[in-house]
Amino acid sequence: MPELPEVETVRKALLKIINKAVIKEVKIFRNDLRWNIKDNLRVILEKDIFQKPYRKGKYLLLPTFKNKILLIHLGMSGQIKIRDNKYVETKHDHITITVEAENSTEYSITYNDPRRFGYVDIFDKREVGHHFLLNRLGLDALDRNLTFGYLKGCFENRKKSIKNTIIDQSIIAGIGNIYASEILFSAKIHPYRSANSLNFDEISSIIKASKFILKKAIRVGGTTIQNHVQPDGKLGYFRQKLKVYGRKGLKCLNCKNIIITSFIGKRSTFFCEYCQV
DNA sequence: CGGCATCCCTGGGAGC
DNA sequence: TGCTCCCAGGGATGCC
């Protein structure tokens, strides 16, 4: 499932080709994603030129010279495919953008999403802070301003579980269900603990574990559970490095007790009830 | 405002 | 082999 490292993998792949790339053609095969894609997306984008892509949490933002931003969210099953211009569309491809890169090579960039939980939108750069999907986002998990002071403030008065708190995008943007289990396991914090019960050391270890795990996952191209594929078609290799997610019934890598799973707010959570306290 | 349930969607695996 | 059922989960929305 695309969380911060998977989206970052896509951003880095796009960065190699789309900066200063001319948008030659935009094809929309179906527009009923999570919300309907705007009718004028094709007209707005064609003949414009991409700039450097960036990311906020799980959102990918592709700015252009004409002061627009193409926003992409991969939902749960979304994928970006970067291929040469002879690419032939397959099932669940919803949009293909053909660009001419700075080196005159043509590429096709395709958004594929079987479950259509994702979204693609276009808007003016100046609206970026007001966009309905971006205006409530908290700090990005890799933002250097994500400090003890920031999280302490967010956790105050928050009685709900720390697991549900760190996947709340209005507090920390980028962490999803898989990395939440991994981060709490690494920080040795029980997922059911209420957010406001954490002390200085515990909050600090969550920050440290988040940055460490997310960066490590980015380095190997993200996690492939079901269908995360990097834009070049390669799988992400972080799955082999997961220490707790998906390890129900297996021995804890720290204390050899058995990893258990339960549902916290409808999401499966993996943890060790002995070394996570 | 916090917290919780509900809904959107399709593929894949389990069970019969 | 084929059917049905359940689960995976990001995040807006609406209700209390």
Main β-sheet description: 4 strands, antiparallel
According to DSSP, the number of beta strands is: 12
Spans with pLDDT under 50 lasting ≥5 residues?
none
> Which value, in Å, is the CA radius of gyration?
20 Å
Structural class: alpha+beta
**Which bin fits the share of residues in helices?**
10-25%
What's the average pLDDT?
91
Question: Which sequence of strands runs across the widest sheet?
Answer: 1-6-7-5
Strand content: 15-25%
CA-based shape: elongated
Count of helical regions: 6
Termini separation: 27 Å
The sequence of SSEs as H and E is HEHEEEEEEEEHHEHHEE
What does this structure look like?
It contains six helices and twelve strands. The chain has helices at residues 4-18, 41-45, 148-155, 162-166, 177-187, 200-219; strands at residues 22-28, 54-56, 59-63, 68-73, 79-84, 93-100, 106-112, 119-124, 139-140, 172-173, 260-264, 267-271. The longest helix has 20 residues, at 200-219. It starts with a helix and ends in a 6-residue tail after the last strand. The structure holds a DNA duplex (16 and 16 nucleotides).
Summarize the structure.
It is built from 6 helices and 12 strands. With 277 residues, it is of the alpha+beta class. The two termini are 27 Å apart.
Layout of helices and strands, plus pairs?
Blueprint: H1 4-18, E1 22-28, H2 41-45, E2 54-56, E3 59-63, E4 68-73, E5 79-84, E6 93-100, E7 106-112, E8 119-124, E9 139-140, H3 148-155, H4 162-166, E10 172-173, H5 177-187, H6 200-219, E11 260-264, E12 267-271
The structure holds a DNA duplex (16 and 16 nucleotides).
